[in-house]
Every structure is written in structure tokens, then in C-alpha cells.
Amino acid sequence: MAVLLVGLASAMLLVGQAVPDPASPAMQTLDSAMVGQQMLEELAAATFFFQHAAREVEFAVADRNNDKAPEVIRYEWSGVQGDPLMRYYNGAGPVAVIPELDDLQLAYEIESTSEPYSGAVMFGGERQLMNESGGLLPATYTLTPTAALGQYMLPSLPADAVGWKPTRVVISARSNGKMDGVITAQLRGATAAKLPKSSVLAETTILESSLPGTMGWVDVTFVNLPMLGPTEGVCLLLLGQAGGGNVADIEHYTFAGSGKLTSNNGGSSWTFNSLQGTRFDLYGKSATQGPPQQADREYVTGVSVMLQPSGCPPVFAETNTLNVPELRSYEWLADFSTPPTADFNGDGVADWVTCDGSPFMAGAIKGEVWTVAQAIQTQPACDFGQLTTIEVGARSRLAGVEVEVSADVHRTGATAAWLSASLVLEADNSQTLSVWQSISDTTRERLHLVRGLPSGVVNYRLLIDPGWGTVNLNVEGQDKGTAVYTRISALAPRRAVVLRATEANKTEFDYVRIRVAE
Q: Rounded to two decimals, what is the model's pTM?
């Protein structure tokens, strides 16, 4: 037994002497290599970078604990020799994964892409586009609730014009009778037969009491008109809506004019006259196509790591990113597989909150579709000062009810552009998409208009580029044009994207994805 015990003791001594010292350079280098390998494996799975620098990196990886939210990992080193390399996981920690470090260098392979899209349409100043004052045999046409008058108008534009927009029509008119009449002035699109279409482009009201007692010029101003094509005409309609019989007198030509429209049933049907015309001046703006634009994006395709533990040689390693994440400063995704109030982007706060502070109605989500029962908005606050992409799948289920995405973007201090996109179901079961900008607290202007969309979910994208000061609209993969927006300071800051509807439970969102470039 004595011999056996001595032999065991000797064996244990030899084994103990064979185990490497954890503090030895070889073991520290090996441990650092294992930490570097872990970093690279996690970086390879990154879906989003919150921060990427030479000595610190914070990124998200896909959900690993089945809580429907990504995991957020952060590595950082102070830059002071001998300080540890710290690792944070979902905000917990920190944990010193290398006790003492002499150097850390993170490098990123960046690949840039450019997406071309249409240049902004540029409008010139207001000018006279048409004049109808050369007709013969002038006469007066008396408006009544049944007798209505109109005029077909198509101006001659410069050869490089891609469209035009009416701003006002000046007519020759006077009051007639009790001064209690009301004229509804409309601009409508025109058919191939030069008759008015049913949809109204713009409308305004003229009180008979504002008209002169003798024949004189009257300005009829229109706002919120979409751009018309260079060969697209419009119809001005003057409808007597109230008054004791006669509403007003309008001057017209009974010979050598052109384009006069008349109705004897209050505007239900119209007759075109190629030999007579209403006396008018048409003012507006012609548009030319600006230079093509492009959206520049950057993606992380690879990461390399150099670690040097104290007193040891450096360790080098590199990896490719499997998801090739885009460099973004903010991102929000609501696919309505779960309530959007979770922290899907891993920034530590709920992605969406209700605008009025009430609890989110989770029961409004069925089959990964949200029936809009309340307004919600993104958080945290964002100025949207970089290239911003808003992708939406939505639809309106009841005629006249709008489903809207709105945001104040390109904010600097108190100045921002206030943009919104609204989708509405029409009476013919088609949908119309409009993009608007606010030009004051009470007035907005339409930048884009797309009619005739199907009644199902419509997929569209807003590409907002503060570098150009423009917003591009893409619907179902088709470029619908680019418009210049105006920044104002009249409205209170919101610094968020808002989803809402004009009536609860009548519209749906299929998804909303928002990306703000770094």
C-alpha cells in the first residue's frame, strides 16, 4: 500500500506540473482567441448595427429565447491598456470576457449600393396659360340651380414640359337678383370627348354677394391640385347651388369661341360646344423633369477583429456577415404577427405606443393583420434627418374612410416637413392613394395622386431624401414620381411616424417598415 500511495502521489505531481498556468501568455492567447471566435460568430449573425466603431460595437441578432424580440449584444474596450474587454447581453452585465487587454481593433467591410429613381418635378412660377377673350357676340349666361355653365381648358405648354397645374381661373361675372346665391366652382378631369369626369380635382365656393354689380373680373382660386399630364385637359364647372332662382350672370361668347359646357339639369349631364366659349383667363404652373436621383445605402458585408491581451501577441480573425445588414440609425417593423408595442428592434423601448396613452387593443390583430382601432406612433423620438424609407401594406374597407401614415421629417429645430400618405376606398371599389404635405396649420397640398388601385392590400413606399428635399412614391414596384417638399415651422413637433384611420375598425395595415439611414 505504501508503494502504491507513493506512486499515486508522484503521478498527481507530474499531472499537476503538466497543466498550463492560466496566466501564461500561451493560455491568455488561447482564451483571447476563443473570445474572438465568439465575437465573430455573433457578428456574423448580426441583423442590425446600433453602433460600429474601432473599440466598441453594438448589434442585434435574431430572437434566441423565443420572446419575439431580437437579442442585443455589445462589446466595448476603454482604450486604456490593462482594462478589460466588456460584453453586454440584452442590457445585462457587463461581463469582463478578457480581464486585461492592450489593444482592440474592429474593422468593417462596407459595400455601397445606389438605387436610381425619378428626379423631382420642378414647377415654374405662376403665369397665364390660356386666354379666351377673342370670341364674338358676347352674351350673359344666367346660372340657376338647374342651368350650369362650364369650360374645357387645355393650355399649350413648352416642349420640355412634363405636366402642369392650374392655380386660378379668372372669369367675367356679376350678381343677379337677391344677392343670396352660392356658386360651387369645380375643376374636373376631362374625357376624350372634352366632357367633365365624375371625380372632382378641386373645389371652391363663390358667394353671389362677393360678385360685382356690373360685369367684372372674378378670381377663382384652386388649391391641392395634383399635377396633370401635358396633354391632359380640365373642365371648369360653375354650379348654382342656392338662391332664389337666378344665382349669377357669367359672360360668354356665342360665336368664334370654343369649349363651352352647359347643363340644364344642375350638372348631372353636360353638352360640349366647339363654337362657343366662356370668357376666361387660365393661370397655372408648368412642370419640367429634374435630373435623376439616387438613394445611396451602405451594408456591412464583413467584420475583422484584432485582440491583444496584456503581454501577449495579438490575435487576428475575420468573418462575413450572413444577413448583410444595412447601416441604419433607426428601424421600426410592425408585421402584426404580435402587438407592435414590443421592442422588436432591441433599442430598449417599445417600438410603437398609442398616441393617447391608452393600452393597445391586441384583439384588433387577427391573422397578422391589424384592423385600425386607434392611432399609434413610433418611439423613441426621431428627426428623420437622413434617407428615410417607409414601406406600407394597407387598405381601406369602407368607401370614404382613409387609412393614413404621417410623419414630420427632415427636422432641424422647429422646422420640418409634414408629410402624410392616405389610402381611401372609392365608390367604384377602387382605391386612391394621395401623398400630402402641410403648408400651414390648416392647409395641406397634394404632392402625389394615384387612382384606380385594387381594393385589396396596396403596397407602397415613400422614399424621403433630406439631401434632395424630396419624397418619391413607389406603388406595387412602379415609380410614381418624385416631388419637392416644403419645410415649415407652424406645427408642434411630433418626431414620429403615426398610423391612424379616419374611422375606427374600417381599415387595415398588413405591415409597416421604417428605416432611417445612418
A: 0.79
Q: Which residues contact 12 (CB under 8 A, 6 or more apart)?
A: none
Q: What is the CA radius of gyration of the chain?
A: 34
Beta strands in 372-518 (DSSP E): 376-378, 388-396, 402-412, 415-425, 431-438, 444-453, 458-465, 470-475, 478-484, 497-501, 507-517
Strand blocks (E) in 176-259? 182-190, 196-207, 216-221, 234-242, 248-255
pLDDT (average), residues 491-498: 92
Whether 351 and 342 have beta carbons less than 8 Å apart is answered as yes
The Cα–Cα gap between 269 and 276 comes to 18
Residues 319-340 pLDDT 10s: 999 999 999 999 999 999 989 9
Q: What angle do CA 223, 405, 393 make, to 5 degrees?
A: 120
Q: Which domains does the chain have, with CATH numbers?
A: 24-114+298-320 (no CATH), 121-289 (2.60.120), 328-517 (2.60.120.200)
Cis amide linkage into residue 94, ω under 30° from 0: yes
